C-alpha cells in the first residue's frame, strides 16, 4: 500500500508541475567559467527583451484582448494568403518539365564550405541548423550568427526600397527556436494594404504572434506538425514547446526564448482556419448544400441518411433510420477560475457545440427540475461523490454521435426536422423519455424550427452495456435487443476525454478534435461497413440454424402457439419468464434503495463479484491462454481500481490487503467480507457489508441456476436432431456421436464452468452464515447437469426418472414440470427469433449505408468541382477545390469496390417469417 500511495503522490506532483506556468531558471552549472556565465546572462537578457512589444501589461494578457488584435478582416486576409499558396504562378507554362513544387525542401549541405558560401546556399533554407568546427569538435552554429537576413518579397534578395536595418525576430520551426533577421518589402503593392507585415509573413509561410509590429512568428511546418501530433496523440502544447526548446539547446534549454503563450494563441487561429478551409466555408459551400447549417465546419457522416443529399425525401423505411447515441461526460468539466470572461469561441457555434449565448439563456429560463427516479441506475448515479461538481463553471458535456461513431453537428434539424425514423440511445432513457415531449415543447421557437410531428418520430433505448445496470423492467422495455428495426446497434461507442481551458478556447479545441475524430471515421467507413457486413452475415447463418433447432423441438401445435404469442404481443413480456426466484439485479435494487452513502457499497460489492468470476474463468483456462499479456494487463488495471475503492470504503482493511502483483495477478485474493470469519467481520466493522454481500450472492446463485438450465436446454436442442437421426443405432454409437460433436462439447464446458462458479458462490454464502438448505441451494455435481427434453416422446420409466433438484426452483405454483420447461423453451425461442430479426435488419441497414456512403462521396466530389469553377478567379481557391474533389472521388471509388465485394458474395436470406420487416413504407414507430 505504501508503494501505491507513493505512486499516487508522484502522479499528483507531476500533474501539478505540468499545470504550472513555465518558469525560466537562472541557476548555472558551477563548472561553467565566468565568461560563459556572462555570455549566458547576455543571451538571457536578449531573450527577455525580444518579447517587449508582444507582452505588455497584465491587463492586456487576457485571451480576448489578444483575439482583438486579429479582427475578422485580417483573419480573412490570412486565410486568402494561405489558400493562395496552393497555386504556383507560372508553373507548367514556360518549361514543360516544371510540373511539381517543393513543400519543404529536405536537402542539406553535404560538404564543408566557407561562411559566405553557406549563407548563399541557405537563401531558401533559412531555418536549417548549422555546425562549425571548433576546438577539435563540431558545435552548434546558426545563420543568425553569420549575419544572415530573411529577405521578403524578392526571391531572397533585399528589397531595393527598404534601407532600414532588418528586424530581429524569433522564428519557431520544427527543428527548434531560431533567432532571425527579417527585412520586409516596401514596394507599393504592400504599402497600400492594411497589416502588410502580417500578410508578407503569411505569404512566406510564417504566422505572426501579433498583428502589431510582429517579432515572433511560427512556420507553417511547425503548426502543421503540432496540429497532427495533437490530434493523433493528444500531446499538449506545453510539452511540444518544451521539446522545441530542448531541441534547440539540450544542455541549457532555459536560455532559449519561451514562446509557449504565443504558440497557444497562434494555434488557436490555425485550428479554426484549417476547419473553415476543409469544410468549404471559404468557398461558399452553403450555396450548394443549402440544406445544411450556413457556416458549418462539421464533418458529416456519409452513411447516415441526409435528406436532399443521399436520400430521396419521399422514401420511408426502417433502413433509412437515423440512429443517434447521447452521453453525458462529467469528466469534461470547466472549473471556475480567474480566466478571461470575454474569451469567445472563434467557431461561433458552427461546429459541434451549440451557440453559447442562446444555450445559456435557455438554461437560465429552464431552471432546475428534480424528478422522481424510477430506476436504481439513477439512484446509484445520484449517490456518487457530488464534491466533484463543486466550483465548476461547466459540470460536463452532452455529446451526440451517430451509429458510425461520428459526432453530430450542433445544427442538426434546426432548419426543419424531416426524418421520419429516429432512434436515440441514452444511458438513462428509461427516465428521460417520460417527459420527452414536454421538454420538446419548451424548446425556444420549436414550432418554426421543427415539423409538428417531430417529438413522435423519436424512439429510444438504453445502450447494450449500460442496460445491465438497470432494473429488470428496464432491461426488457428499453433494450436494443428487443427494439424492432434497431439492427445490431450497440450504442456504447461514445467516449471522450480532453483537458481544461478557457471557455472559448475550449470550444474551439473540442470542435477541432471532434472534427478530426469524424474525419478518421469517415476515411475508414467503407472498410468498417464491409467488416460489419461479413461478421453479421456469418452470425445470421449461425443463429438461424439455432432458431430452427429450437423450433424443431416443439410439436407443430405448440410451435404455432409460440408464433401466435410472439406476433400478437405488444410489449417485451414475451421475452421474460415467470420465474419467481430473485435475481442479483433484484437484490441490488433493494440495496441501492436503502443506501444513504455517497460511495455506493452495493455497486462496489457487485463489481467484486464480477472480479471473482473473472479470476475463476481465467483459472479454468489452459496455461497458454492465461499468459496473454493484454488479458493480464486489463485484469490488473480493473483489480487496481477496485482495490483503490475498497481502501476508500473500508480504510481499516488497508494494513491487511496485499499489493496486487501484476506478475501473479491471477492469484489475487479479493478479501470480500465472506473471506473473513464472523469474529473478524465484527472486529473490522464489516457486518453491514457482509449482509449486503449475502443478499447479492443469493441473487447470483439463482442467476447461475437459470444460466445452467438454459445451457441444458441448448444442449437438448443441439443433441435432439442427432438422436432423431440415430434412432436405429445402438445406444453406445449414439453416445459416441454426441461426444464427437464440438458444439455439444463447448456447451458441456460452459455447464461445468457454471457449476464451479455456483459451488464457489455457495461456499461463500455458508461463510456469511446463510442457511443454504433452507434457501434450497444444494451443491451441484457433474452428474446433475441434465434435464428431460419435454418435446421428446415419453419413454417407459420416465415417470420414475425425476429432474435434478434445481429445475423446481423458481417454478410458479400450479404448473407441471414439463409445462414449466416448455415455457423456458418458448422464451428462449422468442429471444433467438428477436436476435435473428435484429441481424436481418442490420444487413438491410448496412447495404443501404453502403449505398448512401458511395452517393455522399460522389456528391461531395461534384460539390468541390463546382466550387472550383465558382472560385477560379481567386488564387489558390481553384487548386484547393480540385484537390478535395479528387480526394472524394478516390473515396467514392474505394467504397464502390468494397460494395461490389459484398454484392458478389451475398448469401440468400430466407425472410418468410420476417416479411413485415420489408413492408415498412406505411408503418410508423408508434
What's a quick, concise take on this entry?
It is built from 29 helices and 13 strands. With 926 residues, it is α/β, with parallel strands linked by helices.
Topology, pairings included?
Layout lengths: L1 H18 L14 H16 L13 H6 L3 H13 L30 H7 L8 E5 L2 E5 L8 E2 L15 E7 L2 E8 L4 H4 L4 H8 L2 E3 L7 E4 H14 L3 H12 L11 H20 L42 E8 L4 E2 L20 H11 L9 H7 L9 E3 L2 E6 L19 E5 L2 H4 L3 H6 L4 H4 L8 E4 L10 H6 L25 H21 L1 H28 L3 H13 L15 H11 L6 H19 L3 H4 L2 H21 L28 H6 L3 H39 L5 H10 L1 H26 L49 H54 L6 H27 L23
Parallel strand pairs: 3-5, 4-7, 8-12, 12-13
Antiparallel strand pairs: 1-2, 4-5, 6-7, 8-11, 9-10
Would you mind describing this structure in some detail?
The protein is an alpha/beta fold. The chain folds into three domains: 63-88 and 111-279, no CATH class; 285-542 and 838-917, no CATH class; 584-789 and 804-811, no CATH class. The chain is built from 29 helices and 13 strands. A hairpin with a 2-residue loop joins strand 1 and strand 2 (137-141). Helix 18 (525-552) runs antiparallel to helix 28 (817-870), helix 21 (601-619) packs across helix 25 and helix 28 packs antiparallel against helix 29. The radius of gyration is 35 Å and the shape is elongated. The chain starts with a helix and ends in a 23-residue tail after the last helix. Residues 1-60, 94-110, 411-417, 497-502 and 906-926 have low confidence and may be disordered.
Amino acid at each position: 500500500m505504501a508503494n501505491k500511495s507513493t505512486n499516487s503522490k508522484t502522479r499528483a506532483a507531476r500533474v501539478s508541475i505540468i499545470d504550472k506556468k513555465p518558469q525560466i531558471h537562472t541557476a548555472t552549472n558551477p563548472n561553467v567559467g565566468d565568461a560563459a556565465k556572462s555570455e549566458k546572462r547576455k543571451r538571457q537578457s536578449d531573450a527577455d527583451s525580444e518579447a517587449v512589444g508582444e507582452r505588455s501589461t497584465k491587463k492586456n494578457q487576457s485571451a480576448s484582448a489578444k483575439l482583438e488584435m486579429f479582427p475578422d478582416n485580417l483573419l480573412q486576409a490570412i486565410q486568402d494568403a494561405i489558400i493562395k499558396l496552393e497555386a504556383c504562378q507560372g508553373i507548367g507554362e514556360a518549361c514543360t518539365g516544371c510540373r511539381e513544387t517543393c513543400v519543404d525542401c529536405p536537402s542539406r549541405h553535404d560538404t564543408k564550405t566557407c561562411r559566405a558560401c553557406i549563407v548563399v546556399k541557405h537563401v531558401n533554407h533559412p531555418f536549417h541548423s548549422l555546425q562549425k568546427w571548433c576546438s577539435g569538435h563540431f558545435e552548434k552554429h546558426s545563420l543568425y550568427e553569420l549575419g544572415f537576413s530573411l529577405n521578403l518579397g524578392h526571391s531572397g534578395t533585399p528589397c531595393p526600397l527598404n534601407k532600414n536595418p532588418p528586424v530581429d525576430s524569433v522564428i519557431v520551426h520544427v527543428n527548434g527556436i531560431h533567432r532571425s533577421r527579417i527585412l520586409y518589402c516596401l514596394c507599393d503593392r504592400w504599402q497600400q494594404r492594411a497589416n502588410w507585415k502580417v500578410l508578407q509573413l503569411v505569404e512566406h509561410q510564417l504566422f505572426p504572434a501579433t498583428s502589431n509590429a510582429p517579432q515572433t512568428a511560427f512556420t507553417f511546418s511547425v503548426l502543421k506538425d503540432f496540429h497532427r501530433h495533437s490530434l493523433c496523440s493528444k500531446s499538449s502544447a506545453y510539452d511540444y514547446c518544451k521539446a522545441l526548446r530542448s531541441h534547440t539547446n539540450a544542455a541549457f534549454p532555459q536560455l532559449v526564448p519561451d514562446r509557449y503563450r504565443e504558440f497557444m494563441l497562434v494555434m488557436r487561429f490555425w485550428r479554426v482556419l484549417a476547419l473553415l478551409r476543409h469544410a468549404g466555408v471559404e468557398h461558399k459551400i452553403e450555396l450548394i448544400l443549402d440544406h445544411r447549417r450556413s457556416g458549418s465546419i462539421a464533418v458529416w457522416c456519409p452513411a447516415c441518411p441526409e435528406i436532399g443529399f443521399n436520400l430521396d425525401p419521399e422514401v420511408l423505411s426502417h433502413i433509412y433510420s437515423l440512429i443517434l447515441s447521447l452521453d453525458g461526460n462529467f469528466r469534461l468539466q470547466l472549473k471556475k477560475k480567474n480566466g478571461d470572461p470575454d474569451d469567445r469561441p472563434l467557431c461561433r457555434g458552427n461546429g459541434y457545440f451549440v451557440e453559447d449565448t442562446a444555450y445559456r439563456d435557455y438554461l437560465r429560463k429552464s431552471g432546475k427540475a428534480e424528478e422522481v427516479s424510477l430506476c436504481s441506475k439513477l439512484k446509484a448515479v445520484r449517490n456518487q461523490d457530488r464534491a466533484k461538481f463543486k466550483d465548476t463553471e461547466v459540470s460536463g458535456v452532452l455529446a451526440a454521435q451517430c451509429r458510425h461513431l461520428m459526432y453530430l453537428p450542433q445544427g442538426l434539424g434546426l432548419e426543419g426536422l424531416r426524418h421520419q425514423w429516429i432512434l436515440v440511445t441514452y444511458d438513462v432513457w428509461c427516465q428521460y423519455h417520460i417527459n420527452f415531449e414536454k421538454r420538446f415543447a419548451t424548446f425556444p421557437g420549436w414550432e418554426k424550427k421543427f415539423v409538428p410531428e417531430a417529438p413522435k418520430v423519436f424512439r429510444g433505448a438504453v445502450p447494450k452495456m449500460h442496460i445491465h445496470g438497470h432494473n429488470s423492467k428496464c432491461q426488457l422495455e428499453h433494450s436494443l435487443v428487443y427494439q424492432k428495426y434497431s439492427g445490431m446497434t450497440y450504442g456504447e461507442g461514445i467516449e471522450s476525454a480532453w483537458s481544461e481551458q478557457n471557455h472559448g478556447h475550449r470550444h474551439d479545441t473540442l470542435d477541432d478534435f471532434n472534427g478530426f475524430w469524424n474525419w478518421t471515421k469517415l476515411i475508414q467507413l467503407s472498410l468498417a461497413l464491409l467488416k460489419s457486413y461479413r461478421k453479421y452475415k456469418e452470425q445470421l447463418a449461425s443463429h438461424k440454424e439455432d432458431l430452427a433447432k429450437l423450433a424443431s423441438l416443439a410439436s407443430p401445435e405448440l410451435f404455432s402457439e409460440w408464433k401466435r404469442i410472439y406476433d400478437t404481443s405488444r410489449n417485451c413480456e414475451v421475452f421474460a419468464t415467470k420465474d419467481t426466484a430473485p435475481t442479483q439485479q433484484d437484490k441490488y435494487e433493494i440495496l441501492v434503495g436503502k443506501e444513504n452513502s455517497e460511495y455506493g457499497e452495493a455497486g462496489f460489492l457487485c463489481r467484486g463479484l464480477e472480479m471473482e468470476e473473472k479470476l475463476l474463468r481465467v483459472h479454468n483456462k489452459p496455461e497458454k491462454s492465461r499468459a496473454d499479456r493484454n488479458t493480464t494487463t486489463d485484469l490488473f488495471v480493473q483489480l487496481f481500481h477496485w482495490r483503490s475503492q475498497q481502501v476508500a470504503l473500508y480504510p481499516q482493511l488497508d494494513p491487511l490487503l496485499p499489493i496486487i502483483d501484476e506478475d501473479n495477478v491471477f492469484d489475487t485474493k479479493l478479501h470480500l467480507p465472506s473471506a473473513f470469519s464472523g469474529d473478524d467481520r465484527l472486529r473490522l466493522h464489516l457486518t453491514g457489508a457482509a449482509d449486503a454481500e449475502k443478499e447479492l450472492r443469493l441473487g447470483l446463485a439463482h442467476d447461475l441456476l437459470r444460466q445452467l438450465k438454459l445451457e441444458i436446454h441448448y444442449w437438448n436442442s443441439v443433441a435432439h436432431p442427432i438422436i432423431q437421426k440415430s434412432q436405429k443405432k445402438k445406444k453406445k454409437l449414439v453416445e459416441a456421436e454426441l461426444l464427437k460433436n464440438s458444439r455439444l462439447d463447448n456447451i458441456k464446458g460452459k455447464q461445468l464452468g457454471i457449476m464451479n462458479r455456483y459451488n464457489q458462490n455457495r461456499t461463500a454464502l455458508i461463510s456469511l452464515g446463510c442457511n443454504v438448505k433452507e434457501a434450497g441451494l444444494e451443491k451441484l455435481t457433474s452428474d446433475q447437469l441434465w434435464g428431460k427434453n419435454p418435446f421428446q416422446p415419453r419413454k417407459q420409466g420416465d415417470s420414475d426418472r425425476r429432474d435434478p433438484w434445481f429445475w423446481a426452483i423458481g417454478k410458479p405454483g400450479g404448473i407441471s414440470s414439463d409445462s414449466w420447461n416448455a415455457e423456458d423453451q418458448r422464451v428462449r425461442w422468442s429471444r433467438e427469433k428477436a436476435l435473428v430479426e435484429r441481424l436481418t435488419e442490420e444487413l438491410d441497414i448496412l447495404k443501404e449505408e453502403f449505398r448512401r456512403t458511395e452517393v455522399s462521396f460522389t456528391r461531395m466530389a461534384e460539390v468541390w468541382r463546382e466550387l472550383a469553377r465558382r472560385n477560379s478567379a481567386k488564387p489558390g481557391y481553384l487548386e484547393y477545390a480540385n484537390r478535395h474533389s479528387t480526394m472524394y472521388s478516390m473515396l467514392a471509388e474505394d467504397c464502390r469496390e468494397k460494395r461490389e465485394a459484398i454484392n458478389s458474395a451475398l448469401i440468400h436470406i430466407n425472410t418468410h417469417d420476417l416479411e413485415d420487416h420489408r413492408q415498412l413504407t406505411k408503418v410508423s414507430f408508434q
